[in-house]
Request: fold
Amino acid sequence: MLRQATRSCPFCQVRSLLPQRLPNPPQQTRSYAQLQKQRAPRNAVSKFQQRRPSRMVLSDTVARPPRPRASEKPLKKKREPFSHLNQTKAPPFLDQRRQQDNTGDAFPPQKRSGRDGKRTSRRTEYHALKMQRTLHEVPYRSRSAIKRNIEEVESFESLPLMENVQKAILDALPDLEYRSPTPAQRVAIPALLGVEKASRSRSESQKTGIDSFLLAAETGSGKTLAYLLPTIDAIKREEIADAEEMARAQAQKAAIQETEKRDDIFGLESPPLTNAVDPARPRAVVLVPSAELVAQVGAVAKSLSHTVKFRAAPISAKNTPAVIRNRLFNENGVDMVVTTPPLLASIAESNPNILSRVTHLIVDEADSLFDRSFKPSTTEILEKSAPSLKKLVLCSATIPRYLDKYLAEKYPKMNRLVTPNLHAIPRRVQLGVVDVNKDPYRGNKMLACADTIWQIGKASGDYDPSDGKEATQVKRILVFVNERENTDEVAKYLVSKGIDALAFHRDTDPNRQAKTLASFTGMEKAKEATDGSKGSVATSQASQSTRQLPNTKVIVTTDLGSRGIDTVSVRHVILYDVPHTTIDFIHRLGRTGRMGRRGRGIVLVGRGDRADVVKEVKEAMFRGEALI
Ligand SMILES: Nc1ncnc2c1ncn2[C@@H]1O[C@H](COP(=O)(O)OP(=O)(O)OP(=O)(O)O)[C@@H](O)[C@H]1O
Reply:
């Protein structure tokens, strides 16, 4: 009993009262803090951490070139909490700094961090987000340097793009009176055109013949044009160079034939040279993860091709074999193919020549395309196109650590093009939180979701700062759930509450999908304005309910709807489930507030949801900081 009492009370000093024969257990001498540690070891992980998919973690070194290998760098001593005490010699860096600094002040007022020991401004610590370890940190010093550099690019005219490519920009951005490049475009276009060719990249291209780029920029920042414009410019220049080369070769051949003909009077006349194009051998390939993105990027490429005159072939598994064949094996040839990796890899198996002329390979949404499901087909295409490849561009709004690590190993000299706001959600997007556990919902999330949609729908028209006028009458709301199985269930419930809602997932009927998305991506907007139709797909479903919410359309979707889709008309995003990672937060909230517009995200926090994570995301958004 006595021993038990002493064990349970760490401060108890009655150990000496114990009889000698009882062995003195070592833990009795430990402090309370030590006992606490013993109960909850430092490296213990919470249930949430155990469940967290370890690969979905954002990299904190996107902007930096990879570290030297272990064999190249000196071994660093591990830092213990009290390791700075009991030292008999000042560390060498302290001596050096003291020598440099005449004041002798060895400890600057600001926190020093980063591998290079440069001064960074003190930023807020996000503990819950740190547990998720999902966000990238670009030092604020680097962000300012990038900002200063991109300020020099004021307009598209100042970029060395070909004249007709400059003109084509008007076709790609038709509704805008004043067009200036976005930060992503200011960073990427000069680098991809070779104006700001980093020395690292140059030395690599001399070795391998491939210039590799990683374009990491926030959602809705115009990455599509950032890679399409320089690619189209390059393939047009190649085309001109090839035509000149061909003309020269033909002239040479004709001259040789002429002399041979003069010398050989009995020889047969050789057949005339044909200028037939080689079908299905594109110069550029754009890889994207979904058929919806194929259609979207294909539409931008097509809009540019009206002025520049090049042939773009968007092909996906949603097209019929006949359509794919016609687009790919066009008798006039094809310059750019926009597709998904599995489809192109399967075509390349039966037609190995298809990748034999590719000089530009763009991997959009690179974090998805280098994830487990797409990686085999993406790398296969990369390997097959390597002999002719000149430029490899990887592009994404989020760079997880597994991708950063993979790229550092595979392309150590990769040119990293990062925008100042990477991994931050724009401040013009507000985040609201609905506590589902409170009245009137009392844990009923579906009710909370329906009520939130009704409140948005009934509110008077939003003011659209980009238009300078009242926003469109129809309000479009995206609801994100974590599991695909829940999309139908939630959509059904919303319909029963008089809301025009649709589930959008991989198995949705393609025609219905296309129609629904068109209304959210702004393609149907013009039609609506002219014929006054609401373009609703689910109106008939909604009409079953007695009370109807007018002029509001809702799509209930998963990550499928969060990747790359340019939902310009969406002003409200509801996060029905708290996203598992900050990567998902960025992509889902990234569907609103695109390209300078304002937006609102609403998170429904129920039982078991990480309210602490939501709180820190909200704080980071308010401060305009990266979600680290
Ligand atoms: N320079 C510009 N000025 C105004 N609008 C632009 C400009 N460049 C692109 N846009 C528009 O911005 C919107 C978003 O572009 P885009 O889809 O390329 O973004 P993104 O960076 O790829 O987004 P995400 O990461 O979500 O895929 C599009 O509607 C596009 O037309």
User: Anything to note?
Assistant: The chain has 23 helices and 15 strands.
